[in-house]
Design a protein that fits this description.
- By secondary structure, the protein is α/β, with parallel strands linked by helices.
- It contains 14 helices and 16 strands.
- About 45% of the residues lie in helices and about 15% in strands.
- β12 and β13 form a beta hairpin.
């Protein structure tokens, strides 16, 4: 397998630490609001990665964190005058519900930052003892970026060419000026009742230390793959590398993979700009989760993708083509021979080349066109039918875009069978009545040499 590694800025052959088990850490949601579909673009890319690894024979140990303590969660819970734990619980539940709706494979672990405070304090104490961190006069603890010579490697920052401010307390900031970042934030009245006791007085962790503590505690000091959105590169992932490697004295992550933005009208989807949609928003507008998944995977994960009506319509048409083929194949399938057509192999190879979903789609639809022609001409064999069903099932395991509720209802099949009998008797009036009944319930019946075919109406 080959992945584009953000650390080296080139494609690399994937060499896992343990050939039997891949360790994967993905940055999860900050639960101060419902995730928007831009967030889910990243989570879907990670789902594609995980499914491709599993389909390629690997076992995957996956941790996805939940940030339930940071500047945003405190501010939002304070504004609503709700206890932080109760406030974040609501959005954690929404997140888990939406993961199921989107058919995203569950992680093995969903660590919450508030459950790992002691591990964070332990890392900070270690960094202070090694002179990688220091305590300010205000009681905040900062990481000294000058103490880590490799700082900036992930995002290609040149320390000697940047204007350096001394410190930054905020969780998020620009790479225009690099600064010592906060590992621990001393208590302020605006924090309310959100604080923990530490060797430096009461306070709370900075955002960046949270992921390091959870990742190393659950997956070890060295991890195979770490993922996130491209906006996580700096400062979050850059800071994770610095504090983790200074703590453990070993390489933190071997492969960094980042997905690009989902755009709206050419701009990054963002809650701060107000130009975002939630999953619930797009479902209310008539878009299915399958269509959303298809739309996301129609672009390579490292390319920007614009959320548009045209893309939604393309997704609807593509899914219809797949489901129609599946409904054509099922009535004429007599054997479940496990065979692997060349198209399936090429499809899998495309995914193994840095998760090239657009190329995989192209291979699949080229094959779909050929199979449809064989069915229409009556030249498809039982073995080819079995191969085709196998390929469609593999395609759907990876992308999860075929609606699960589109099995043909028994009533519709019975209407179609009765219509077939009426046609054999040349009772065209009865045949037309049955066709109209089928149409009323949202299905279309087509006649062919092999008999009738049913497909869902668009």
């Amino acid at each position: 397998m080959i992945f584009y590694n953000s650390l080296s800025r080139k494609k690399e052959v994937f060499k896992p630490i343990d050939k039997k088990l891949i360790t994967l850490y993905t940055c999860g949601p900050t639960v101060y609001d419902s995730p928007h579909i831009g967030n889910y673009r990243t989570f879907l890319f990670e789902d594609l990665l995980k499914r491709t690894l599993i389909a390629s024979g690997f076992k995957v140990e996956h941790a996805m964190n939940i940030t339930d303590i940071d500047d945003k969660t405190i501010k939002a819970s304070t504004n609503e005058n709700i206890d932080l734990k109760e406030f974040t619980k609501k959005y954690i539940n929404i997140f888990f519900d939406e993961l199921k709706m989107l058919r995203i494979l569950p992680a093995d672990y969903y660590p919450r930052a508030t459950k790992y405070i002691s591990e964070m304090i332990n890392i900070i104490e270690n960094l202070i003892s090694k002179n990688h961190a220091y305590i300010s006069s205000s009681g905040d603890v900062y990481f000294s970026i000058e103490s880590f010579q490799k700082y900036g490697t992930l995002t290609n920052l040149k320390l000697d060419k940047l204007i350096q401010s001394k410190r930054v307390l905020s969780d998020e900031y620009s790479s225009d000026t690099i600064q010592d970042f906060a590992l621990w934030k001393a208590y302020k009245p605006s924090d309310g009742n959100v604080y923990w006791q530490s060797p430096w007085g009461k306070g709370r962790p900075g955002w960046h230390i949270e992921c390091s503590a959870m990742a190393m505690n659950l997956l070890g000091n060295s991890i195979d793959i770490h993922c996130g959105g491209v906006d996580n590169k700096f400062p979050h992932h850059e800071n994770e590398i610095a504090q983790s490697e200074c703590f453990s004295q070993s390489k933190f992550v071997n492969y960094w993979l980042h997905s690009d933005f989902l755009l709206v009208d050419g701009e990054k989807m963002s809650k701060s700009k107000g130009n975002f949609y939630t999953l619930n928003d797009i479902i209310k507008k008539g878009m299915s989760v399958e269509e959303f998944r298809y739309m996301i995977f129609s672009a390579h994960y490292r390319s920007k993708i614009n959320f548009s009506l045209k893309r939604i319509n393309n997704a609807k048409k593509a899914i219809s083509r797949i489901t129609n083929l599946k409904h054509k194949l099922i009535p004429i399938a007599k054997d479940k021979i496990q065979a692997f057509p060349n198209a399936k192999e090429r499809f899998h190879e495309a995914l193994k080349d840095d998760l090239d979903s657009p190329k995989a789609f192209s291979i699949f639809f080229e094959w779909l066109k050929d199979i449809n022609s064989m069915i229409d001409n009556g030249t498809i064999s039982e073995i080819e039918v079995a191969k085709s069903i196998n390929f469609i099932n593999f395609f759907d395991y990876i992308f999860q875009v075929i609606p699960k509720n589109q099995e043909i209802p028994e009533r519709i099949i019975n209407y179609a069978k009765l219509r077939e009998i009426a046609r054999m008797k040349k009772d065209w009036t009865e045949a037309d009545k049955l066709r109209n009944k089928i149409d009323y319930y949202g299905w279309v019946v087509e006649d062919s040499k092999e008999g009738f075919r049913l497909k869902k109406k668009l």
